[in-house]
Amino acid sequence: MSTLESITIIRPGGPTGEDDAQGNPIIGADSETISAGWKVAPRSSSESAEPFGQQVITGLALYRRSVADILASDRVRVRSVVWAVDGDIADWKTGLVVNVKRAS
After folding, report:
1. Can you name the residues that pair with 84 across neighbouring β-strands?
2. Are residues 25 and 19 in contact, defined by beta-carbon separation less than 8 angstroms?
3. What DSSP character marks residue 23?
């Protein structure tokens, strides 16, 4: 039987309403929220077709039996590693499926 895990959802900061010396909007700090009740499973890896070397994409699938505040623009920390959400969140009747990836 697999155990449930906690993950950290990292949401990018938004504009503060102020500009830097070059006139660009200043972005606030990311926020982090711990979210419990996830199952973590490996996903298959793939290789990109970049012309200047190959890149292996490694991923996980995160499953949760209830709703969670997670967006496609978020990052997540799972087992001390930060991952990017890969695609849209799959919102099923029975819960969520979130695919995440990192490049190496």
Report:
1. 75, 101
2. yes
3. S
- Delineate the domains of the chain, giving CATH numbers in brackets: 5-12+25-103 (2.40.10)
Assess contact for 59 and 44: CB atoms under 8 A: yes
Global confidence as pTM: 0.81
pLDDT (tens digit, 9 = 90+) per residue, 51-62?
666 667 689 999
Helix (H, G, I), strand (E, B) or coil at 52: coil
Hey, which bits of the chain come out as E strands? 5-11, 15-19, 25-27, 31-47, 56-64, 75-78, 81-85, 90-92, 95-103
Bridge partner list, 7: 35
Q: What is the DSSP string of 71-94?
A: -TT-EEEETTEEEEE-S--EEETT
